[in-house]
Amino acid sequence: MTSRWDVERFGIGPMATPRQADVLLVTGYVSLKTLKRIIRTYEQMPEPKWVLAFGSCTVNGGIYWDSYNTITNLAEYIPVDITVSGCMPRPEAVMDALQTLMKMIQSGEAGAYKKYKENYEYYKANQDRVLKKTVPILGQTPKNDLEGKNEDAKE
Amino acid sequence: MMAVLRVFLFSLFAIFIGLLFMGIGRKVIARIQLRYGPPFYQAFLDVGKLFSRKSITHNFVMDLGMVMSLGGLLATMLFVPIAGHVAVKTSTNLIVIMYLMAIGYLGMAMAVAASGNPNATIGVSRALTMMLGYEVPFFTVMLGLIIVNGTSSLELISQSQAGSILNWNMIRFPLSFIAAEIALQAMMGEKPFDAMIAPAEIASGPMVELSGKYLGLAFLTHAVSIFVETAIIVNLFMGGASNIFTFVLKQFEIYLITVFIEAVFPRFKIEQAVKFLWTVPMGIAVLQLILILLK
Amino acid sequence: MIELLLVPLITTLSIAFFIKYKRVTWTLFLASNGFILYKLYSIYGMWSLSYSFNTGYEILGAKFNLGVSNNPIGWYFAFFSALITLIISIFSIGFNKNSKSNVSVIWMLIIFSNLGIFFAKDWVTFFMMWELMGWTSFFAITNGKDKALDGAKYYLSLSLFGAALLLIAISLLGAYTGTFEILPSAFGLLQIINSSTKLGIVILLLFLTTFIIKSAIFPFYMWPQKVYAEGPEDYITFMSSVMIKYGIYPMAIFIVPVVGSVNLPRILNTGNVLQYVIGYLGAISAVLGTLLAIFQTDMKKLFAYSSVSNMGYILLGFSSMTIVGFEGSLFHVVNHMILKAAIFLTLAAVVFRTGESEMHKLGGLVYRMPLTFMTFLLGIIAAAGIPPLNGFGSKWMIIQALMSKKMVVFAIAMIFASTGAFMYLFRALASIFLGQLPDRYKEVKEVPLTMAVPMFIMMVIMLLVGVVPGVVMKPLTTALKAVGYNVDIASWTVLEGSLKNATIDLKIVFYMFVAGVIISGLMYFFGNKSETVPQEDNYTAGEYPEEWGVDADRFNYSYSFYQPFKEMFDPLLESISIDDLFASVGRNFEYLSTTIQGLFKRGEGAVLLFSIGVLLLILGGLII
Amino acid sequence: MTKIFILSSLSLVFVGLYGVLTRKNIVKILIALNIIETGINMLLVAFGYVEGGITPILQSDLSIANLDKMVDPVPQALVLTSIVIGLGTTAFALSLAMRYKDTHNSISIRATDEEGVNV
Amino acid sequence: MNSIVFLVVIPLIAAFLSLFLGNLNKITMYIVTLFNLIFSISVFMSGKIPFNVAIGGWKAPFGINFVVTDITIYFLLLVNIAALMSITMVKDIKEYQFYSFYFVLLAATNGMVLTGDMFNFYLFTELSTFAIAGLVAYKRDRLSTGAALKFLILSSTASLFSLSSIGLIYKTLGTLNFADIALKLTKLNQASYNLILILFLASMLVELKIFPFNLWVVKSYEGSITSVNMFTHGMLGTAGIYGAIRILLIVFPNMYNTNISKVLVILSVFTVLIGEIGALKEKNLVKVLAFSSMAQMGIFMFGIALGSFESIKGSLYIVVSNYLAKLVMFIVTKQYSRAVDSKNYIDMKGLGRKYPILAISFTIAALSLMGMPFFAGFWGKFSIVISALSLDRLSTLGIAIILIASVIEGVYYLRISHTFFVEKDVNSVNISRVYSIIPFALALLILVVGIYPNSIEQMLFNVIDEIKNAPNKYINIILSLK
User: Fold this and answer.
1) ipTM passes above 0.85
2) Count of CB contacts below 8 A, A vs B?
3) How many whole angstroms separate alpha carbon E127 and alpha carbon E92?
4) In the predicted model, what is the mean pLDDT of residues B87-101?
5) Which residues pair with D54 in a beta bridge?
């Protein structure tokens, strides 16, 4: 993205920490474990922040739509401003998406981060429902927790 | 009153030139990598954006530290003679400049360590080790020039090189110029010696917790440090120009050299960097020193 | 003049009497320090004041009498150490509220010997006060705690060894010059060196070794870190800031004038052999002190080595043998006194509240003890020699002197040491105050008022001396002029260097710094508002450290802070270790001691040894 | 003539000294000590000897005449007291040796004096 | 003034009577010692010093005479004061032997100091070592019997040597009177002079605890009870020092141009070294004091052997400081070891906190022994150092070693006084306060001499002046009776 397609000429560049970033690019399928990290990273980004969902996996789960440990729609968990469709979309598509995002920001309509703040409970409920399963079990594996898991799968 | 105005003017000028150099620098690197690169005013845009964003802080030390770091570097800048005249009529002593620069780094280090993020503290420990690394050869170079000119005031040293290009220190003492160049590379934290920023290893090192205006202040500090360091090298080795324009041009030449080196070199490990700094530039500087002492 | 020495004695006795009531003893201690400071202030300028006590003991044909005279440089040292001691004694009222053993009795005796050393008229009085200070500080360091014994024993054997050398030197000097007075004996030593150089050099080196031991210079740099880690913190503040100067004072009044004016073979026509000896001792202890300080984990040991490197700077200043260098060193004596007292007061406050002195066990105390943090921060900036504060002036003058005399190696060593200082000073700041606050210190409170006031005073002094060095330089230059050096009285804020137009006006440096801070402050307020975030909320690549059992202690990066740097120097530090040398000497003595005990335990060889003795006598008498 | 007396008493002294140094048994040491003592006493008397002298007793007018040929009586007086001292010391030492036997249950001088350690 | 003889006669009579007195012994002991002390003080006050008493009317060179000059009266006072202080330490002793031995010791030591005749001096030395051996054996256990026996064997061989030297003196000079010997010795040829000196020196050095001769010191100190230790140190030691001054300095003055003084210097340096290093690892407090007294005597002998009047004055200061300090230390050791009933100083942790006066006086005594300024020992060490450095290379090396050794002494003494002040609550222990009066008084005395040496400077000046012009001062007092 950066050297061959020179996205830097639009002033766009990769930043090492969410603190310094404006746009969160979520690429590839989102498993439950990564969702937990995404939420934390999203919350660590200062205002105003935007999310670009990349590829069909984040929009509707893509080819992993029926897998037990991925989520199908990222928008339920964190507000997404703009999505790029295509199973691994072309770099030009991403650059175009970013430029349209810039225009949307200029015009003021891209404000998803405000939504996250207003109905935070809705997002929180969705997140908790999913994230119950990802608590790391250090050492022992409690028996009752395992039964809980397969009811979920059945549901 | 005049002094306050001059101080304010000099600071703005320094920040402007610094950001300009950064922008052009990124453009030059892009060109080297066969791509267009951001517009030259990109640095101004970034700083503007950063100052408009919200930001997070851990405790009052972060705010105090960042303000102190930019303040320190601006104070250093006020002591460097720019094209012959200084902000406030005082002696531009090299030792004072060297110690004042330390405020900048100490302030930044304090703010960053206050965030409690281990990446930041690792970055700072590398930065300070690197500082010890480049400070020694740089001072040896300065020592040589001070002994030759018999004065430690930067103004007198730059005036001693007036006249044709032949009696520039760069020509009279080529070895110390090379050593100073390498040390400058490390001083600015450019590519071969940027183990402290190292985005891949420690998530941009000290800047990991800086967001919004703190990152903006860090950008400005870096800009002013570029301006100050290049100004020192110009005064020391290229005779300090008579008018501002040639002075800035000379500064840009120096900055270009560092950008060229930065574009092509991979990163040193921190102890490799210090070992390198203490052998190669230090060796050259000591050689030059011996030549000076023998003369 | 006499009441200056009598008051500490009387207070010692009265404190010993009231030893049970802690509050009474410490207020008495404070009162007497206050009186001493006032008295010193009142005798400023009266250089002819003196008092002598006739002991009636005949030596070298004359009745010896203990003499105390108000010499200018002695006054300079005594006044500033009295000032610092007063501030520390305010601090130690609060500090000793719940400590079992009371160190004020011994401490008062040390202050008596301190005044005696600075005002001694002749070498024997100097030696008596020196030796008194030696053994009293042993008791002060141990202060009733057994774990402090081996550090204190190491210190005691060194200081007694030093005193033995001093006694030999004084007797040799007395025997050859016929007088014990300090000034005439300096001229006497000059004649001896010029006439029979070997003997003169031996005497001078004997004097030098004693003073080097007491000021922890290169060969004897190991004892501060053993002693500072063990002693009671408020006394250690006094010891590390004031007592380490006892070696410097006699160097200033005796060694430097003699070495400066003796005609010995000169090297590179910059200085004679002895100057280079002093210089290299200073340079090595500066560099070694900094390196070892970087690798310490205990905060008190770290600052012990920082004192060693600061003493190195002072020696470097002496070795340049220029007026600027000499002034710079004496100015650094007071600067170091102030900043070291500030730093150790904060350390004492930290130990008082947390009881912990290992740096990797501390962290994040800025949240709970902001005032202590501010004093520590100013102390760090001053110790690093950064302009607005007081450390810079003296370092600047010393470097100027070294550069003007083209002593290149010493200048580079000085810069290496002072840049290295940033490393360990910042490490201390980061590990103790910044970073994550462990849960056990969550309810640590700020220090009580009696301890906060001295810290605040120290902050003010550091800033004052930093911006207006005249406060210290004026009395210093008047003292030097009174002694006889041709020096012009320093102005309030301008410091003169020795190179061409090398004068800096610290006032302007301060204004520039303030201007810079104002401009960046404007920039700061120009930006959007920021909201504070709890300390756990850090970028850790999305992870939740608490879930993986990483508590605040393990999350802080402060255990092996400069690990890569340490690996570079490990082979060097392993090879030269003076400490093993002294330890092996100690072991040999103890091994010998057990064999002798064995010999005397059996005891049946008595008659055999008796006859051997007789044979020896016969051998001596009849044959040789 | 007096040479022989001095040499013989000196040899006695050296025999006694050899005995004290080498013997382990305390009683033998004391005996050797007495040998030295007698040797020294003989030496003292030998010092007072005058060639062809007569006993220094003033009992008849005859002896007052040749006073100078009389042997010097003073060392003999000294020897008297030193014999008494020698007796006293040996008696006391022997009583100590008896108690030494009970406490160290060995008569050799090498026995250690530490409690409980009996070599 | 021939009542001076009572000083020797009365204790001897008391020695015989003690068999029958049973439990009256303790009181008679106090009476006799007090008599001796008061008598010698009255002689000291009477100002008729110096005078000479011919025993049995026989004139000087022939009969035995008691001589009282400045040196004698000072040492007499020292001996009797030490006696008085040591008997206060005697607790519930019923056996009469102890008292008779004590009386003999008292008589013998007073005799040694008073006598002016060589054989008489030998006699009293023999008596005192005999009495000390008896007192050491008082405890009747394994340690004390072994110590007493070995001490007896060593001291009797030594006295035999001095007997032979007396014989030699009589053969060559024909007289046994100190003054007469001093006069005639100058005319003697070198070889026999050396022989006499060596034989006499051998027996003297045993008492003066100099290295090859002092193997008995540690054992006898360890084996005996505290009061006997104080007897050995206070009375026998002081009398031995008097003997050294009187005989080595006045009778054998030109010892200094023979090499014997060089050997003495080396031996005394060795003694100091052995004494200090020996004490370094020593746990038992009494043995530490034994080693330290050996070292102090080594320094004293070093001062004497150097020969210059400066160093002799120094060694006299050392004698005063050692005399006072050791008395204090023995008393403190006794109180503390009885309180914790173990002689090991580590078990005495924290006692200083409960009984500070005892610990402080112990520390003051230790500091004076180390030669710290403001204490009596410093002036001694200082003048010895000055005189040693201005002499030849050997003495400079010697004084350097001695100073290093006193560093070691400093370390182990202050370590002991540190253990006294360690924070440890010892409330199960009780020592009656009355015992802290004597040590504190002596410690104050040390402090006074340390701060204002002028107090005893005058006395030492008389001693030095008497040694300096020995011929007319001492000799014609005795021979004036001709």
Assistant:
1) yes
2) 59
3) 26
4) 83
5) D70
